[in-house]
Specification:
4 helices
């Protein structure tokens, strides 16, 4: 594995009062490689079953990744670089998919509730800063009025210097442009299905955003505001069985994010056929127009990436 230096950044100040998440804790142009070397991000594994919703802090993420887990369900990874909320959660366990995905960042901080016993040594050996529950002091707490295990939350400021203030999308190799590219076809809604979960994105011309729904219900933040994003990427990847299982014996799916394949990029009420490429784990992912039109820029702001089975 390529050795990298960890460069941190300011992570915000914890507020003792009720936080924006609605939960009161107990107390110059550069190359992508050069940019990555000075870009530190915080990645948090987020629960995404019904009892865990609404989640806290997703609205502040630069990137929200949606991946398949056991039983065909979904789990999210929120990646923060530009800004970090006071509270994020509910936090859940890590998966093997996360290790390959996170290699593209510069020694990221990974916050999670734990991991399958045989996976933990791989996390320990990975080029990241692992901060699971139990090894992060008072950064985690139980709350939010939800039943366990859907009530574990993170106070990122208590992890120390975890981000550098640079957008995670830049570190991931994405290009951004306010002006929509030529081409594409008009699209008002797109649904992506996992075996036991689904994501729907409805275009709102008034907001200039795709409104997020999960498992047939409108997704909101902890204050009831609708989650919405300017760019959605449906990235078709190989989803295979890993060597790991959950406590009930269900095989853990592994989504491969190194390689190349088809993607659909949704922005500005249009759908663009694209190709994605990530030749090696240490590099970012590029998206180009499927018709050979060159790099396909995303709309400025948050990006949702759903890993769909090809």
């Amino acid at each position: 594995m390529r050795r990298r230096a960890f460069i941190g950044g300011a992570a915000g100040v914890f507020a003792a009062a009720c936080t924006p998440g609605g939960i009161r804790p107990p107390d110059g142009k550069a190359s992508r490689t050069a940019t990555a070397r000075r870009t530190a991000v915080l990645a948090v594994k987020i629960d995404n079953v019904g009892p865990a919703r609404p989640q806290t802090g997703l609205e502040d993420a630069d990137i929200v990744y949606a991946e398949q887990v056991e039983g065909g369900l979904s789990r999210l990874m929120a990646v923060f670089g530009t800004r970090v909320p006071d509270v994020v959660g509910p936090v859940r366990s890590a998966r093997e998919t996360d290790l390959e995905l996170l290699r593209q960042f510069d020694r990221p901080t990974l916050a999670y509730s734990g991991a399958q016993g045989k996976l933990q040594p791989l996390i320990d050996a990975a080029p990241l800063r692992a901060v699971p529950e139990g090894k992060a002091g008072t950064a985690y707490f139980r709350g939010g009025g939800k039943p366990a295990p859907h009530n574990l939350y993170l106070r990122p400021a208590r992890l120390g210097r975890a981000t550098s203030g640079t957008g995670a999308g830049v570190a991931a190799g994405y290009r951004f442009a306010a002006k929509a590219p030529a081409g594409g076809i008009p699209e008002t809604a797109r649904t992506v299905r996992f075996p036991a979960a689904r994501f729907t994105f409805d275009w709102s011309a008034g907001r200039g955003r795709w409104l997020v729904s999960m498992d047939g219900r409108a997704a909101t933040d902890a204050h009831g505001a609708r989650l919405a994003t300017p760019t959605v990427v449906v990235q078709y990847v190989d989803v295979q069985s890993s060597r790991f299982h959950d406590r009930y014996g269900s095989t853990t799916p592994l989504s491969r994010t190194v390689g190349s394949g088809r993607a659909v990029v949704l922005r500005d009420g249009r759908a663009y056929e694209a190709r994605w490429a990530r030749p090696d784990a240490a590099g970012g992912t590029t998206f180009t127009a499927a018709d050979g039109g060159g790099a396909l820029p995303f709309a400025p702001g948050q990006v949702w990436v759903v890993f769909a089975k090809r």
